[in-house]
Amino acid sequence: MLNALEVFTTVVVGVMVGVEFSVAFVINRILDALPGDSGQLGRAHGGRMLGAVMPVWYIASLVLVVVWAIAGWHDHGTGLVVTAGALLILSVIMSLVLLVPINNRGKTWTPENRPEDWKEQMNRWDRYHYVRVAVIIAAFALLVAALA
C-alpha cells in the first residue's frame, strides 16, 4: 500500500510540475508572441482557469507528501520526502505572498481596464514563477530519489 502511495504522490507532483513548467516556458511565451491584446487576454483567462485549479493541486500534493512521510517514517528515504514537503510548503508560501496577488489583479484585466504597468507586473509574475518552478522541480526530484 505504501508503494502505491509513493508512486501516486510522485505522479501527482510530477504532473503538477509539468503544468507549471509548461506555463513558464511554453504557454506564456506563446501568449506573449500573439498580436495586439490577445496575449494579455489569454493570460487573464489562464489566470482565472489555473487560479481555480492549481491551489487545490498544490495543497493535495502537499497533503500526499505529508501522508507519505508519516506512513513511511522509518523508511530510508523519509528525509528526502520531508525535504520535498518543505519545498512544497515554500512553493505555497511563495504563491500566496508573491504570485497570487498579481494573478488576482491580472485575471480581471481587459484592454480597457488594465493598468499602464501591466506588462511589468506580468514580467514580475513570470520571474517569481520561474523560481517557484525551480522549487517544485527540486521537490519532485527528491520524491523520485526517495523512490529508489
TrEMBL record:
<dbReference type="InterPro" id="IPR013901">
    <property type="entry name" value="Anthrone_oxy"/>
</dbReference>
<feature type="transmembrane region" description="Helical">
    <location>
        <begin position="77"/>
        <end position="100"/>
    </location>
</feature>
<feature type="transmembrane region" description="Helical">
    <location>
        <begin position="6"/>
        <end position="28"/>
    </location>
</feature>
<dbReference type="Pfam" id="PF08592">
    <property type="entry name" value="Anthrone_oxy"/>
</dbReference>
<protein>
    <submittedName>
        <fullName>DUF1772 domain-containing protein</fullName>
    </submittedName>
</protein>
<keyword id="KW-1133">Transmembrane helix</keyword>
<keyword id="KW-0472">Membrane</keyword>
<keyword id="KW-0812">Transmembrane</keyword>
<feature type="transmembrane region" description="Helical">
    <location>
        <begin position="49"/>
        <end position="71"/>
    </location>
</feature>
<feature type="transmembrane region" description="Helical">
    <location>
        <begin position="129"/>
        <end position="147"/>
    </location>
</feature>
